[in-house]
Predict the structure.
Amino acid sequence: MSHDTLTLTADTSDVWRHHIAPEDGPAGFLIRTTLPENPDGVEVFLEQWAAGSEETPHFHPGDDMTVVIEGRMAVQFYRQTPQGLVKDGEPVVLEKGQTGYIKGGRIHDARYLEACKLVFVHSGPFDLTEA
């Protein structure tokens, strides 16, 4: 097939057929696209977040990787103490073209400093637990 006749749209790629507009997610979380769950591998999400939106402290069961396609975001890590959550270090700022990695079970938040488009990869079935 020649490059001139190849048209890539939602109709030609199974990846783009799974858009979810999260109804119960944080304000500013605009869209997630994912393939059906694969318990033996990874789940890959394409996400869009509005500028100024944020996720409260939480953790995931598996390791994750976030690639910032557009925008700028900050991740703050936390540790649990008998008195509650305590910030663990300075926020990590990720900009367009950068990749961040978070170990499974590591408590963190996310703030979207600019409108963001992200590729999010999670090892094993995705889940999110509020901290």
